[in-house]
Amino acid sequence: MYDNPSSIGVTGWILRVVYLRTAGTPHTAWMASSILMHMLEAAGLHCEPSSHESVLPVTEEKVDSELRRRLFAVAEHLNIWISFDMGRSRTVLCNSTLEMPSARLGDYTSELMELLPYSTDLDPNKTQDVCELEASLSTVLSRVHSVPPSILAQCNLALCLCRRLQSMNTSFTGNILDQILSITLKGIEAAQAILDARSPWHHMANVPFQVICVLLAIDTGEAIAQLKDAMQCLSNVSTVYNTNATREALNTASLLILMQQRRKEKCANNLNNLVKKFPIVPLPEVQDEAPLHDVDDMRWLNNLVGDLSSFDYSDLDRFLFSTMF
């Protein structure tokens, strides 16, 4: 590349990175996103327009300040997430002086960019603090995002924060768990909406896969109930965008579900052996002098043992466990 990159060339590379993120290998996408960041710097699009003369003999293209900010912000968003997903170093332009893009009516780029400060909290080289990560997760979950690509970014960030906190032995309960299950549902719906519109975005396959992983980790009735839609969405992505990356994601998700099924079958077999060893027997008839409330309690238990078909198993998790996930 002999000439300095132009804004059109940078825009083309952004589209290339989005495509590789969706349909290519993770390594190829990461390399492309790193090149994109260096192209921004080479084009001088990482800084606000300045009247100061450059010490280098470079003829800088006249590019609107707002366009600079948007090109840089989207490129940084892509580079951060591709790097984090692979555990590779991200490309940081320390001399960048750009401000955040301004909000426009009918444009939602600012929603995406406002997530960047919380995304950098997940940098592997940054010292993690549980309280800070919990605060970031709460903020991200409470945000309102308007369009599918923005919702996918919100969902992806929330799921990554969840998994990082879980690795630090943090449990989620009550309202925060409900919010997590709400954002996973929104993420599935957003991915399907983008697929139906044939308007691909780079989180389109990644989010359904991450949702499946998190739902399997939560492992409650409400979480397992979402797995069908998540797998169907991931299967639809693999059908429409039939690449090695999407097929591998679908196969890996199926394998994870199979492993979870085998684990549950083993647990169920152990429980079955216990029930066989200690079978349920009807309680003896009570004497007339027994207290009335004891009689009612024993009748309820006998009825329950006699017919478990009407038992609401969805409440069993809450009954047995005080914390989830």
In short:
It is built from 13 helices and no strands.
List keywords for this structure.
elongated, mainly alpha, 64% helix, disordered C terminus, Metabolite_Synth_Reg, 13 helices, metal-binding, single chain, 325 residues
Please tell me about this protein's structure.
- The chain has 325 residues and is mostly helical.
- Helix 1 (7-23) packs parallel to helix 3 and helix 8 (174-196) runs antiparallel to helix 9 (206-218).
- The chain is elongated and about 90 Å long.
- The chain is built from 13 helices and no strands.
- The chain starts with 6 loop residues before the first helix and ends in a 5-residue tail after the last helix.
Helix-strand blueprint:
Blueprint: H1 7-23, H2 26-42, H3 65-86, H4 109-113, H5 116-119, H6 130-142, H7 148-167, H8 174-196, H9 206-218, H10 221-240, H11 244-277, H12 292-306, H13 316-320
Helix pairs in contact: 1-2, 1-3, 2-3, 6-7, 7-8, 7-9, 8-9, 8-10, 9-10, 9-11, 10-11
Protein name: Transcription factor domain-containing protein
GO molecular function, one term: DNA-binding transcription factor activity
Keywords: DNA-binding, Metal-binding, Nucleus, Transcription, Transcription regulation, Zinc
